[in-house]
Design goal:
This protein has about 240 residues and is of the alpha+beta class. It has one domain. About 25% of the residues lie in helices and about 15% in strands. It has 6 helices and 6 strands, in the order βαβββααββααα. Strands 1, 2, 3, 4, 5 and 6 form a 6-stranded mixed sheet that branches. The radius of gyration is 18 Å and the shape is globular. It starts with 6 loop residues before the first strand and ends with a helix. The C terminus is likely disordered.
Length: about 240
């Protein structure tokens, strides 16, 4: 019996969500809808893109398997002054490799002659400068003390020791520019019948997500079986 593949819809907070981040976009020429952390999560700037457990710990990355698909959106915000609050569709990824540790992932990138992604925590891979992030934020739960730059990265390091899963992805679609497709609440309701949970995401039927993506003008092959069939047809023997 073939293994079933899952399809997740996930949101993240991009660089453009804060004034600090918007200044970084202008100053450094960074794409507005990259993740705003000093460790991009997901790292949509990386080629290939990558996902780790830095943000959600055990709740997401450890659940992912090779062949699963992940659709990324920004969180809901007023990204354009001409529109009400909305999300942006930024990436559709297929998991191509899964590593148990960041070190294993780093060794693979080195063997391939590729630069290390920002979210790969190994000693020689330093975080992004604070000036290229969305800025420091208060620490939970009370928010009275602001975390420091090193505190921020140290918390990520602790999380990698508990949840080391690291995913390398095949990009089916990526747009992290200001032209990324606008996604209104009604787009979700028409395609999925509801606004989906995205912090602790569940799997969705391909047909529903296909409908959503097509309504946004994005055409990708989500069905891994169709894609495999097309590969065989294109490469006989």
């Amino acid at each position: 019996m073939s293994q079933s593949r899952c399809l997740y819809l996930v949101t993240y907070r991009p660089l453009a969500i804060t004034l600090h981040g918007r200044k970084a976009i202008i100053r450094y020429g960074i794409s507005p809808f990259v993740d705003g952390s000093i460790r991009r999560e997901p790292d949509l700037e990386s080629d290939p893109p990558t996902i780790s457990a830095l943000c959600r710990g055990r709740n997401f990355a450890p659940r992912l398997q090779v062949g699963d698909r992940v659709v990324y959106f920004t969180v809901k915000h007023r990204w354009s002054p001409d529109l009400p609050a909305h999300r942006r569709l930024t990436a559709v990824l297929r998991i191509s490799k899964k590593f148990d540790t960041h070190l294993d992932a780093a060794n693979w990138f080195r063997d391939e002659g590729l630069p290390l992604p920002s979210n790969c925590l190994v000693p020689e891979n330093q975080p992004k400068p604070l000036s290229q992030s969305s800025g420091l934020k208060p620490l939970p739960p009370c928010g009275k003390r602001r975390q420091g730059y090193r505190d921020w990265d140290r918390r990520y390091l602790v999380r990698t020791r508990k949840h080391g899963s690291f995913l390398v992805c095949e990009p089916l679609f990526i747009d992290i520019s200001w032209s990324a497709p606008v996604v209104m609440d009604d787009d979700f309701r028409r395609a999925l019948g509801r606004i989906p949970p995205t912090r602790n995401p569940c799997s969705h039927p391909e047909s529903d997500v296909d409908k959503l993506l097509l309504s946004l003008g994005v055409s990708v092959i989500l069905d891994w079986r169709r894609r495999a069939s097309l590969r065989r047809l294109g490469n006989p023997g």
